[in-house]
Amino acid sequence: MSLLTIEGLLRRFGGVAAVDDVSFELREGEILGLIGPNGSGKTTVLNMLSGFLPPHAGKVLMRGEDITGLPPDRLAQRGVLRMFQMTRVFARMSAFDNLLAAGMARGLSEAESGKRAQALVEELTLEPVQYLDAGQLSGGQRKLLEFGMCFIEPPLVAMLDEPFAAVHPVMREVMAQFIRSRHAQGFTFLLVSHDMPIIVDLCQRAVCMNAGRVIAAGDIHSVLKNHDVIEAYLGESQQGEGEPPSLEVHR
Amino acid sequence: MKPTANLWQHRLRFDMRAALVICGLIALVPLFVTGPYALGIILVSVYFAILALAWNLLAGYTGQFSLAPAAFAMIGGYTTALLDFYWKVPLALGIPAAVVVAALFGLFLGKLVLNLSGPYLSLTTLAFAEIARVVIGNSHEFTRGDQGMHVATLMQSRVGYYYVFLAALVAVLVFLYWLLKGRLGRFMMAVRDDPVGAESRGIDVVRTKMIAFCVSCAICGLAGSLYGTFSQLVSPELGLLQQTGLVLSMVVIGGTSSLSGAILGAILVYLGSEWLRGFGDIQIIVFALLVILFARYVPGGLWGLIAARLQGRKP
């Protein structure tokens, strides 16, 4: 069943259509990879889905209800949560207080937020730094903190923009494990990443964009073998003869 | 949840206790200082402490830099004065009316500017403050212009007034503590630290800023109204930009995002400004330099240094 249905999204910046007639669906309980080379429009799509940019045309439906153009706070209240490529934490509040604030923003009581925050700092291995101001945390720890802030109250969908970029491999595994465990519980993810091994590892389906348009969508393995996808990533001249090419990287 | 886990409430409680200790010390002053002039100076510094707390709520806790705290104090003062002068409204109603009117002006101005970001709030509040002052100064028939207006007084006793101002300071302090320790306080700090992040977590950023702005304006209105009844005169000078500069330097020097820092800064800066009076009109130059130095080298202000020493951590 479709959780989010994206129909014909269009967003222009000046005369350039950064996102042009983009349509796809995000099914309940899946991890959908949104991939594509730099500048293909992935983050712009995420900005429109999370309410930070109004689309110039097109619709976003959540379980059939039109949520196009709702502001980010209203979408977050409805369970549409987003993580940013450049982390957005509250730098002068402690890591634990960040989690409390996120829980209270979703309507939880302080006591309930505290209980959940305690469990999350343990799960995300943030215990040693929970009383430090979030501004003092490393980039990876901030990303983990953002995971916690998204999940302190279960979201309907978590949209993750390059969560693994520039993160230490140990923390990457903590993040990947967090996503796996939440996916096993039935949570839905939209994952934007350039990290193909992790996309292959986590996602069942993928949508590939190039120059603002969707060029392939479907099963992850078939998308990564798609001629247009390979061309978008590697360029035509890079494709050799013999074995059918694929962007899939075996770990 | 462990008792120390809620670090913000732990810090706030410590800050509040220190602020109450400072208020306790201020309460003892009339035992040692009996001269009306000296007592008047400390009384006015308490007036500025109330303004500093109001501005700190907006700038220190919510990250919104208004340049109109003095203008809202002037609006509060004139509300009480006009109600008294034209309609003989008793001060028991005139003072609360000043709070309400200042908050309503804040609501009106906030509606116009609070969905903007960056320097627009500062620029708009600066323009508003100057327009309000010039309009009041030029409305001779209604406000008596630069001559100012006479206001009734609550009492003749200077010591009595001293404690009225102190009671108002403690009331504002307790109210801000209550506000900050709850949901709204956390949302304000989230908005200060990262408005985009706050919005993405489900916080209504404009509403949070609006509440902070209106509360700040209301507190300024209260301070201005009380000051008018104390001096028995309100004039456009109450809203001078120089007064706002003084409030700003009090908070930066005392310590932003701190209740005790704002009070400490207000007392020290105002006493310092009175002391500097003997050297000519150099107060603003000195405090502007101090603001630059504190902002650069001691961002936590004096209270940040003291709190770090008391808690045995690095400032």
Assign a percent range to the helix content of chain B: over 70%
Per DSSP E runs of 2 or more residues, the count of β-strands of chain A stands at 10
Beta-strand level of the residues of chain A, as a percent range? Answer: 25-35%
Q: Over the alpha carbons, how many angstroms does the gyration radius of chain B reach?
A: 19 Å
Q: What is the global morphology of chain A?
A: globular
- Termini Cα gap of chain B: 27 Å
Strand content of chain B: under 5%
Q: What is the alpha-carbon Rg of chain A in Å? A: 18 Å
| Tally of alpha and pi helices of chain B | 14
| Number of DSSP E strands of chain B | 2
The oligomeric state is heterodimer
Structural class of chain A: alpha/beta
Largest sheet of chain A: 6 strands, mixed
Q: In what order do the strands lie side by side in the largest sheet of chain B? A: 1-2
Name of the CATH first level of one domain in chain A: Alpha Beta
Largest binding interface between chains:
A-B, 35 and 26 residues
General description of the model:
The complex is a heterodimer of chains A (251) and B (315). By secondary structure, chain A is an alpha/beta fold. Chain A contains 9 helices and 10 strands. Chain A has a domain at 2-87 and 155-238: Rossmann fold. Chain A has helices at 42-49, 72-77, 95-105, 110-123, 139-151, 169-184, 196-202, 220-225, 227-234, and strands spanning 2-13, 16-27, 31-35, 57-62, 65-66, 80-83, 157-161, 188-192, 205-210, 213-219. In chain A, the strands form 2 sheets. A 6-stranded mixed β-sheet of chain A has the order 6-7-8-3-9-10, with helices on both faces. Chain B is an all-alpha fold and 315 residues long. Chain B has one domain. Helix content of chain B is 77%, strand content 1%. Chain B contains 14 helices and 2 strands. Chain B has helices spanning 7-32, 36-61, 69-87, 91-113, 120-138, 140-143, 158-181, 183-193, 195-201, 205-231, 241-254, 259-276, 283-297, 301-311; strands at residues 149-150, 233-234. At the A-B interface, helix 2, helix 3 and helix 4 of A face helix 8 and helix 9 of B.
